[in-house]
Amino acid sequence: MKTNKIKFGISYANTGSPLHALNGITKFILFMGWVTMVLTTFDLRIICVLILVGFSLLKLSRVPFATYKPLMIGTASVLVMNALFMFLIAPQQGVEYMGSETVLIAMAGNYSITTETLFYLLTVTLKYFSMFPIALVFVFTTHPTEFSASLNKLGVPYRIAYVVSLTLRYLPEVTKDFVNIMHAQQARGVDISKNVPVLTRIKNVAKILGPLIFSSLDRADVISNAMTLRGFGRNKKRSWYSLKPMTKADYMVLIVIASVLTLGFINRYQSEQLFWYPF
């Protein structure tokens, strides 16, 4: 029987790039500032610049394109489907925002395809997609423990920060367990391919998820006992081995982030329309 191959490539990858040398706090602020910029703008020009800069940073991280190519294709497919559903639910949304109507293809009801609708859907789709590269940059270049240390440095209780670290650290392990259990079940004749009916496929997937859940709970129990034996949580504060000191490069990046956000807020405040529409 042919088995399905699943690869989990979305995790920390130490490639020694300049982005890896930055402090975890800097990268976290960069990520949050990027998301803030995306959420506050509907200017397609700014969104396109963010996408170009994001993929430039992704290339600077030195992570092979093949590592995140499947996720990029999947994300793009989901966003295209989302745009289709947006058109089906509110076909005249673009016309309302742009304040004009240029019909390209006349259709029944309100489902005529207009230039305004296409521009609106393009802007919203690229707006969501612009967060994709910076999210990968953050995940690829920030070690889970370093990220937790950064959260604690920013004021998040270290217990919560450590939970985040454990989640990010063991997510690839859970995925490996899923693949191993899936292969073991397929060797026993459990088929989850398209060759079987949907209900049968769901039942067979449950045969994989059951052992996966129990193995994950067993791992969590072992980790919990180990942390309890070492006195984790007794003190109000703790130190972090992986916490990096702030460097000149970090402060320069923070200045650039603050400057770009300031310009973005000024542009958003001065804009007369929510969407930039050149036609």
Automatic annotation (TrEMBL):
It is found in: Membrane. CDD domains: EcfT. It comes from the Bacteria. The chain crosses the membrane at residues 28-58, 70-90, 118-140, 251-269. Keywords: Membrane, Transmembrane, Transmembrane helix. Pfam families: CbiQ (PF02361). InterPro entries: ABC/ECF_trnsptr_transmembrane (IPR003339). It is a multi-pass membrane protein. Belongs to the CbiQ family. This is Energy-coupling factor transporter transmembrane protein EcfT.
